[in-house]
Design a protein that fits this description.
By secondary structure, the chain is an alpha/beta fold. It contains 11 helices and 8 strands. It has an 8-stranded mixed beta sheet with strand order 1-2-4-3-5-6-7-8, sandwiched between helices. The chain starts with a helix and ends in a 6-residue tail after the last helix.
Length: 289
Amino acid sequence: MSEIAAQSLKAAPETLVADLERKARRVTSPCGDGELVWRIWGSGPPLLLLHGAHGSWAHWIRNIDALSQRRRLIVPDLPGYGESAAPPKPDDGASFAGALADGLRGSLGVAAPIDVAGFSLGGVLAGALAADAPDLVRRLILIDAGGLGLQSGPTKTQPVRMLKGEALRQTHRANLLTLMLHAPEAADELAVYLQTKNVPLARVNPIGLVVPDKLRAVLHRVQAPIDAIWGEFDAPHPDPAAQLAVLRQFQPGVQMTVIQGAGHWPMYERPEAFNAALLAALERPLRTL
């Protein structure tokens, strides 16, 4: 069990988040009319982690401790989410990619290609970054990403506006089990707390950035080797084999690891299995395309 997973059994969620955030180095870069906020943990070869829609850096809360033992983790709040300002064109994935690229080259001083892993919306934007800024992306790992032009699963969530207290908490939990998590026990106090904190901070609509095939449309321009990690029971993007088939139309050598028993948010639901899969993917020799 990871350190965060073990702690979550006994510590208050807000304490877990605050304690992990205090260990990070905070960096900002220009973004739209404000700033893009980055957090950095660990040392070693850099790894950029991009979170999903209606999320923040904390989508990776159960992975940061383990991964930062091997990698220097660069984890932004995506433009328009968490503490980061919206990009100049919030309906255009290239605008998000541009803000990320400018921050990496500028405030973070990235001068050579680095490994990039993107979850859900973050995977779509990671694809845009790899396509538009090939000098920055050494390897691309897609995690339960949409935008491949396939049929989505039934993921209708319940509205949370105007709700308070226990009603709000229970609705967030129900939405997590509809969209993000497979096992009821995975929608624990920490997951509900993160959802409650992150959703009100989402200031861009992700639908147009993903649907129906925004990732698929840029894959022909991606020069970095692509691999994938998928939850066995991903609700919005079901059937990992079908997802893999699309990716292999662009790169026949794509390898996918399916995280058994996990839903759409595998790095939270099955952190040990996910961490092992991600590190294994990062350690494979780079394929020649």
